[in-house]
Amino acid sequence: MATDVSARRTIYVIADDDSLIHALAQHRQPAAGWRFAALSGPPEPDSLVILDLDDEARRSEAAARLRADGHAGPLLILGTIQAPLDEEDEPISRPTRLGLLLARVDAHASEPEWARSRRLGPYEFAPADRELRLESDSIRLTELECKLLACLAEGEGSVIGREELLARVWGYSSGVATHTVETHIWRLRQKIETDDPATRFLVTEAGGYRLAPTQPAESH
After folding, report:
1. Integer Rg of the chain from CA
2. Which of 9, 28, 71, 87 could form an SS bridge with 34, CB 3.0 to 4.6 Å?
3. What is the pLDDT of residues 15-31, one digit of tens each?
4. Cβ-proximal residues to 13 (8 Å cutoff; 6+ apart), any chain
5. Are 87 and 142 in contact (CB under 8 A)?
């Protein structure tokens, strides 16, 4: 059955030419139900944007402009940038292997099978809304932070290794040299941990990470 073009999700590309769009579309567009397009105006607020410009200064300017204009979706940056990274920015080293980029696109564009509510420490974890809720307050999470927490929660207190997290959350193959897991764990702790010991449920163990056992969220 042919995919309804009107229902496809657009993934935007900012690049010096259309070669990356053609390469990505050739491998993924027909089956995945979404399309790649050059960014010619403001993207949809939560859309995925791929930034592929040869000059670092131009990459930095483009990333800063997107965030200043209020774009809240994930940004895959092929190469380094001069400006500080936003929480939703994900740098990928150049030259970039197409397979690695496709894995990251697939991870962002896939339907969130992990997006069910559950209890984490004192919080209600609502990944569909990208939030941790505590009474009337809420903590905003990024998509990758949600996937990371959901992956750890599925372990039910067992330790999940760094390599497994890289594969399940980021789509990376084994042996990739990156500190992205450690960076995201650190950012999560900055957001969720308070003076209340119950908020310190994200535990580092030899070989990986786990969540302290918690009760599932009550269904309403």
Report:
1. 18
2. 9
3. 999 999 888 888 765 44
4. 20, 21, 24, 36, 37, 38, 39, 49, 50, 52
5. yes
Give pLDDT tens digits for 116-159.
678 898 999 988 788 899 988 899 998 889 889 988 988 888 89
3-state helix, strand, coil in the chain (%, to 5): 35, 20, 40
3 state SS of 78? strand
The neighbour count for residue 41, using CB atoms within 10 Å, is: 5
Give 63-67 contacts, CB < 8 A, sequence gap 24+. 63/89
Q: Which of 33-42, 129-138, 204-213 has the lowest mean pLDDT?
A: 33-42
Cβ distance 124 to 117 under 8 Å? yes
Are residues 48 and 23 in contact, defined by beta-carbon separation less than 8 angstroms?
no
Which residue ranges form the domains of the chain, and what is each CATH number? 5-109 (3.40.50.2300), 118-211 (1.10.10.10)
Q: Is 124 helix (H, G, I), strand (E, B) or coil?
A: strand
SS3 of 61-83? HHHHHHHHCCCCCCEEEECCCCC
Residue with tokens 């999940």: 160
Is 84 strand, coil or helix? Answer: coil
- In sequence order, which residues have a C-beta less than 8 Å from that of residue 107 and are 6 or more positions away? 147, 169, 170, 171
